[in-house]
What does this fold into?
Amino acid sequence: MDDIGRLIDLTSQMHLEPGEDVNCPQLSQSKKDAIITSNAVLPNGKKIKLLKTLLTSACERNCYYCPFRSGRDLRRATFSPDDFAKLYLQLHKGGIADGIFLSSGVINGGINTQDKLLATVDILRRKYQYNGYIHLKIMPGAEKAQVEEAMRLADRVSINLEAPNTERLLQLAPLKQYTDELLRPLQWVEEIRRTQPGNRAWRGYWPSSVTQFVVGAVGDTDLELLSTTQNLYHQLKLKRAYFSAFSPISDTPLENQTATSPMREHRLYEASFLVRDYGFDIEELPYDKQGNLPLESDPKLMWARKNINEPIEINTADRERLLRIPGVGIKGAGEILKARRKNLIRDIGELRPFGVNINRAKPFITLNGRRPAHQLKLW
It folds into this structure.
């Protein structure tokens, strides 16, 4: 198998690993490099073509949901650090890839696998002076010194918790240890950011950190997932939690499990952003009796219908209150505060240039004491 063939094999299942390409329109699969790269948006808003791949698809772990689990009948592919770095540089110079998301199956333990990932990125940075975007996975069981080296070399690091707690992880990936192998490296990331100067990193500042959860494979609830997510945001300064709706894979222990609705994944993202950016606590969000978010409407709108009993005056509400209004985002709240320092906002149309979804906002606001006209729902 040639290098491109190996890379296609290694990238073939990376859609199951959400990252910077979440919610980005993707290339047509008929295009030459569509299998290899995906459109992505970086933390700074820059759009790039991202190569999401493994260094090897061989793996000694038996995670029940994973296409690369040990013992599964699958053609495996592997690159050495040198060979992969050379190939990626060719793709980068050829305009096929602008950044890299690099993970790996686990072979001969997490420490050995992390060494190979670090060697790959070190070759790119130091030998080839590659200055582009790198998102680097930290392997289960990696040592603290390896975590620090990953932070020196990468723009973003991530460790997949996969589950919200130890009990759920045991049902999902029985060979992984939730606290010692997964949570502790995330804690080290924040400890290093907090205690060591950022000028030791390649960029002159420490990278952001993220994690991923597999949703709905083993009975996990949205309340469980969001509780862990809220703790990660507040305690470990996690930049983002990614949610991957479970999809059954043939020849795995969960192959007969029902697939999770993509809408559930979508609602979890909405709720996690409310917790991260809008000042919501998970206990304020609407759940059904099973502890899951209703799928029929977004959680902010459902909260507003239940809790905004009196309309919010756009001209006097503080930022925290403005952010509770459906249709008003972070940017919109800021623009409203800025505009009303000069003049009263009297007309609903004045909110549209601020990025406010005025149809969603109308039922919950007043403008200089007057409610904008809106059509009431009949049922």
Observations:
- Residues 308-366 form one domain.
